[in-house]
Amino acid sequence: MMKNLRYSSAYLMLTLGCLFSLSTAQATEVSQIIKTTDQLRTGGGNMQVETEITTYLRDGTLEKERKYRVYSQAQRQSLVLMQSPAEKGQKVLMSGDDFWMLLPGSQRPMRITAMQKLLGDASVGDIATMNWADDYQASLSGEEVCGNQPCLHLRLDANRKSLAYQHIELWVGKKYYEPIKADLYVQSEKLAKQASFVMDKTQAPSAVVEMRLSDQLSSHKETRIRYLSRQSKTVPEAWLNPMFLAKNPVLE
């Protein structure tokens, strides 16, 4: 009897150990998947990204088009320079969870949130942040078919309440882990936007070239964010200080 009990206990511990190992291995694998997806979306490292945002009305008519230069830096820091004549001189700085808008002629940075709109349904957070690997806890929901290819369905839960989206349902390609589509939920658990991603090529993609956002709350317009070019760029540390930016409107 005691021998059977010892055998049962040993078997139970072995089973639990195996389950724990599988769970840990899966968590590690999912973490690597998200890091690969981020690399395809942002390029990784300190980058300068020339970005174009275009909005379309519900009937598909072109509404507006704007250009931005985004400096994405380490430690969750980004600087956005407006390039189009209608917004020339305006800047947005992100440092961690803090965001500032800087307007020409004003020497006082204005606090904003990650949900501050830039154009159409593209918010500051959509082009200056969204580092999924660092900002979200990811888990695998299952495998599905997306269009004509197998994909993985992941759930991402925000690590902090300050993030623009508190929960993301994400689908990535099973082979290359490229992002295919995402449902973006705000704090109220309402579906705010649906995103789809265009890759540079079908086989062995190396970068996202466009993100399309469809508003699910009000306007139901489509906003397209195109990444025109990417290159490595480390900006001077002073550029990431809101007071310096307020006193030095011209950087280039």
Automatic annotation (TrEMBL):
Residues 1-27 form the signal peptide. InterPro entries: TP_0789-like, UCP028205. PROSITE patterns: PROKAR_LIPOPROTEIN. Transmembrane segments: none annotated. Keywords: Lipoprotein, Signal. Residues 75-245 form the Uncharacterized protein TP-0789 domain. This is Outer membrane lipoprotein-sorting protein.
